[in-house]
């Protein structure tokens, strides 16, 4: 009877150790992730920064410089979104492996192309020699909101195989731009 109780306790201890290891990994992952902050979070940070420099004239000057820089960056971002039609809604990056010669990072991107939503996951392998740094995309996975057309799913599959993000963004840009127009036209004829 004592061995049964002892075995039950050992199993419970082992289960708790596994859970602790899993939670430690999740905590480490969350510490390494970097995400794009929402406008509300940026404004909260600015307001807390402003409170820290109230009454300090040097702080006010740097605060006004920061405000001007932030407004300039917001204008630039708005222009790029209008110009390209690409709006990233979230990004996370996790370093998987890092040595002197090589770095492997896992990236996750979510965003919109005009009205098409997309989600990308890929690993970026950066190798450094004495003269240069080279980067290679591996394990590319692309998910589109709707893959109504088999040609688009074929295109996505071939892009995933080649790991060519530049071609993906260039080609999908024109497709997504006209996606809304095609949808309206088909709705009109229904």
TrEMBL record:
Pfam family, one: CENP-P
Domain of life: Eukaryota
Entry coiled-coil feature ranges: 6-33
Keyword match Ribosomal protein: no
GO BP terms in the entry: CENP-A containing chromatin assembly
Keyword Coiled coil recorded: yes
InterPro entries documented for this protein: CENP-P
PANTHER family: CENTROMERE PROTEIN P
The protein's name in its UniProt record: CENPP protein
Gene coding for it: Cenpp
């Amino acid at each position: 009877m004592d061995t049964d109780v002892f075995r039950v306790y050992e199993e419970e201890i082992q289960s708790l150790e596994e859970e602790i290891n899993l939670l430690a990994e999740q905590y480490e992952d969350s510490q390494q992730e970097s995400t794009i902050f929402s406008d509300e979070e940026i404004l909260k940070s600015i307001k807390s920064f402003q409170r820290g420099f109230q009454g300090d004239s040097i702080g006010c000057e740097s605060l006004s410089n920061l405000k001007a820089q932030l407004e300039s960056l917001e204008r630039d971002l708005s222009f790029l979104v209008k110009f390209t039609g690409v709006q990233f809604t979230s990004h996370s990056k996790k370093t998987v492996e890092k040595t002197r010669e090589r770095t492997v990072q896992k990236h996750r991107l979510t965003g919109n192309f005009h009205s098409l939503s997309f989600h990308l996951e890929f690993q970026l392998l950066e190798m450094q020699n004495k003269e240069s740094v080279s980067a290679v995309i591996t394990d590319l996975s692309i998910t589109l909101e709707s893959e109504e057309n088999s040609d688009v799913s074929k295109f996505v599959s071939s892009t995933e195989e080649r790991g060519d993000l530049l071609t993906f963004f260039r080609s999908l840009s024109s497709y997504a731009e006209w996606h809304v127009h095609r949808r309206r036209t088909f709705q009109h004829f229904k």
